[in-house]
Design brief:
Number of domains: 1
CATH topology: Porin
Structural class: mainly beta
CATH architecture: Beta Barrel
Number of helices: 1
Distance between the termini: 40 Å
Strand content: over 45%
Mean pLDDT: 81
Radius of gyration: 17 Å
Number of strands: 9
């Protein structure tokens, strides 16, 4: 079974699990970390999350990769809605937009647009209440001069996202 299918089954089980007792409330919290859920070419991004209330999160991302075969600069944003609060974990759905400048050399540049719809989880280890680990799956549309693509998109727990929450 593929990693995406295993994660989808796990996510459904978590959604059907019981109660909201001791839920992880991140209201008013800001986090800084990394995220690998934006680029078509798997460029990791620096990420900032802010939860204005316990249900809604705004996330901004910036990723840069400079190499011989490929240069890329990514900017993106996501709006996440917490649909299930569990002990030390949040299950959310949302959407994202991103822009990438691939090979930003004069005359060889290509600008791409990302649009995604996602479901994900962010979990916290009981001894580390300010460190969140996240992973997501969903649909992504990618459009550039060289490629238009639409399909499923998923991450493993090792390559998804890690954020440190400040305060409380």
């Amino acid at each position: 079974m593929s990693k995406a299918k295993i994660f989808a089954v796990l996510l459904v089980v978590l959604l059907l699990a019981g109660g909201n007792a001791f839920a992880k409330n991140l209201q008013g919290r800001t986090a800084l970390g990394y995220n690998s859920q934006l680029s078509q070419y798997e460029v990791d991004s620096i990420s900032i999350k802010y939860w204005p209330n316990s249900r809604l999160c705004v996330q901004g991302m910036l990723g840069v990769m400079m190499s011989d075969p490929l240069d890329e600069i990514d900017f993106g944003a996501k709006l996440l809605y917490n649909i299930k609060e569990e002990q030390n974990m949040n299950v959310y759905a949302g959407g994202g937009l991103g822009i990438a400048n691939v090979d930003p050399d004069p005359g060889d540049s290509d600008t791409a647009l990302f649009v995604s719809g996602i479901m994900g989880v962010e979990f916290f280890l009981s001894g580390l209440p300010n460190l969140g680990f996240s992973t997501e799956l969903g649909l992504k549309f990618y459009s550039s001069d060289d490629l238009d693509a639409f399909g499923t998109d998923a991450d493993t727990f090792l390559e998804a996202g890690i954020h440190y929450y400040f305060g409380q």
